[in-house]
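To: structure subgroup
Subject: Chain for Friday's discussion

All,

I'm putting the inputs and outputs inline so they're searchable in the archive.
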Amino acid sequence: MTDITGRVALVTGANRGLGAAFVAALLERGATKVYAAARRPETVASDDPRVVPLTLDVTDADSIRRAAETAGDVSILVNNAGIASGESLVTGDLDAIHREFDTNFWGPVLLTRAFAPVLEANGGGAIVNMHSALSWLAVGSYSATKAALWSASNSARVELAPAGIQVVGVHVGYVDTDMAADVSAEKVPPRQVVDEALDTVADGGAEAIVGDTAKHVKSRLHEDVRALYPQLAR
């Protein structure tokens, strides 16, 4: 378990939506400083002196390296930044799919590699990775990126445990943010996602399964794969 009180955190994609909600909640739970990372840090809207805007492009290895050098006091890393291109893996635009993997998969992996030594040097801590219910229910390229991140989180959790670093994966359906603005399906409030994710950090858990959609999909994973894909029914 990781006590958030007195900790320094870094949140990627922190300028809006879920990222901004993570920043606010971390401060409310006692974090002394939160690096609000974004490609354009000037878009981080906060006048709280504990919020430190930080330039970070999660698709750029040099940008990640510089962030790790600048934020050497971090002990909680929230890998929140993500994009959704909606591409088909079979016929979709490969450049768009590559960008999606660079952001949703390689970004968190490279950030984990860069910040794991930082967290260990600071006495351990936690890494929070934003997965999705679509980690388990495939609907194209976005699902593939989140499934890959789920697997990476499981590997990192085992590898980093001896260093006192907790890895939390957060699975949720649609969240009520700009990314899902055009979606008519049920959406989970950002604050619920953040609260359940940080509760899992505080409780020493491994995964936060947030909302009915994510819980339903997780409950079906032991069944024949066709249970989740009725279009494959014979």
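Points worth raising on Friday:
Helices lie at 17-28, 61-70, 94-121, 141-160, 190-203, 211-219.
The domain at 8-232 is CATH 3.40.50.720 (Rossmann fold).

D.
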